[in-house]
Amino acid sequence: MKPKMDGSSEFIARPKQSRPVRVADKIKQWVVERDLKQGDKLPNEAEMIKLFSVSKGTVREAMRILEAQGLIVTRTGPGGGSFIDKVSAERARSLLANYFYFQNLSISDIYQMRKTLEPELVASLAGKLTEVQLDELQFLAERHPEPASSPEEEMEQHISSLAFHARLSEFAGNRLLGFVIGFMARILTDLTVYRRLYDPPSAELWQRGREHQLELVQALRDGDSDAARAIMASHMKGAERIMIAQEAQLMRNFMGE
After folding, report:
1. Rounded distance, CA 151 to CA 147, Å?
2. Which residues are CB-neighbours of 13 under 8 A, at least 6 positions away?
3. Tell me, what DSSP letter sits at residue 88?
4. Whole-prediction pTM value?
5. Contact 180, 117 (CB under 8 A)
6. What's the pLDDT band for 148 if we cut at 50, 70, 90?
């Protein structure tokens, strides 16, 4: 709703959707209303035409849209047809990343979210992870015992550090919280690579990151929610400061200062 100068408001018309897009939305609504699950078969093409009162071409295009979104899968041969599919978290993150690719996100934008969400995630996980999960996190935290000696090695360490956070997100009991945190790790990884935020290497980032991750794993083992929250909050604050400095240094180098 758009505010008017007199204090009232008016609706802003949304761009008109094509007929296949509208039919794809109707099919999704039809699926939800019938509580269909992954693997359930959709009506055939002739039935779809009758259900939604549209042409064969419109139905086919709508089904292609749903398949591109990962919501259905089509199989040929005996017993074939269109079936409800489950969108993987990785596919959902990839589609969302395509949107944010054009939004010019800053390091501060990402860390504003990370500083709020990740301390609460680890606090919720303290004392609840299995030994296998804790050992996996320990392995990820210990993967790089020495600071990087080249930009290429620094990039690898950045990505490994973010893999630690992505794995934590997969342990979340709150799937929405886990998805958002995993997505932030994904786009920060992309930004690190695209903007070369690993060059020059930062020994401080390696040291602080490694120490915090090892301390965090111990707090999770101990079931200490308050310590886990405080460690992650400290880690987020320091990482943001260093990453912003890295970005500023890169810009100065680019400008030839």
Report:
1. 11
2. none
3. -
4. 0.71
5. yes
6. confident
Which pLDDT does position 253 carry in this prediction?
Answer: 53
Q: What is the DSSP track for 154-215?
A: HHHHHHHHHHHHHHHHHT-SSHHHHHHHHHHHHHHHHHHHHTTTTSS--HHHHHHHHHHHHH
Residue 203 gets the label, from left (phi > 0), alpha (psi -120 to 50) or beta, of alpha
- C-alpha distance from residue 195 to each of 7, 149, 199 (Å): 43, 19, 9
CA angle 242, 160, 255 (to 5 degrees): 40
20 cis-preceded (ω within 30 degrees of 0): no
- For position 89, what pLDDT does the model report? 80
Torsion-angle region of residue 85: left (phi > 0), alpha (psi -120 to 50) or beta?
beta
List 72's β-bridge partners, or say none: 84
109 or 96, which is more confident: 109
d(CA 201, CA 233): 23
Contact 244, 107 (CB under 8 A): yes
Instruction: Assign 45 to helix, strand or coil.
Output: helix
Q: Which two tokens stand for residue 90?
A: 């990785």
Query: CA quadruple 112, 113, 119, 120: dihedral positive or negative?
Result: positive
User: Cβ neighbours of residue 238 under 8 Å, at least 6 residues apart?
Assistant: 208, 212
4 phi/psi in degrees, rounded to 5: -105, 165
User: In whole numbers, what is the pLDDT of the chain averaged over residues?
Assistant: 86
Q: What is the H or E stretch that residue 75 is in?
A: strand 72-75
* Helical (H) or strand (E) element with 10: strand 9-10
pLDDT score, position 79: 84
